[in-house]
Design goal:
single chain, mainly alpha, 6 helices
Length: about 150
């Protein structure tokens, strides 16, 4: 943030290297915000829940697991934020570039993400666990939380 606070009134764009190009990321427009918000709120909630301790040690693990859980939403949100087609974003093979792009998107839209993080509602108590039957077997009809690798 600038020392005079003018970036709140006139947010600055950012640049990320992605698929051999310099992508300029502009602050989200009012027309982009509703869809973008619906796409990223579940990702933000997943990120903030703290159920994934490996993410603190390895950004690549975090990116891969978030893609596994919310890949389509992440790709679509990045497409909205960059003005590029989802196929362009999704066609990348480099998780580190996607992470760098996501960092620029968050940085450029910092105020949105701060408010979104404040508004995420968590279910009380620990993350759901699998119930075990009396013989130690897990019933096949039980739904489980996403696996952590």
């Amino acid at each position: 943030m600038s020392t005079d606070g003018l970036d709140i009134l006139d947010p600055q764009s950012g640049v990320a290297r992605f698929r051999g190009e310099q992508l300029e990321v502009q602050p989200l427009t009012l027309v982009q915000l509703p869809r973008f918000s619906r796409l990223v709120r579940p990702v933000i909630a997943e990120f903030l829940q703290g159920r994934h301790p490996a993410w603190l040690e390895d950004d690549t693990v975090m990116v891969l697991e978030l893609l596994e859980l919310h890949g389509e939403s992440i790709i679509e949100a990045a497409a909205i934020a960059t003005g590029r087609p989802a196929e362009f974003i999704g066609g990348n093979r480099n998780a580190a570039e996607l992470l760098d792009l996501a960092r620029v998107i968050v940085e450029v839209n910092r105020d949105f993400f701060i408010q979104a993080m404040k508004s995420v509602k968590f279910a009380p108590g620990p993350a759901p666990s699998l119930p075990a039957s009396a013989d130690g077997q897990t019933p096949s009809s039980t739904l489980s939380a996403p696996a952590i690798h």
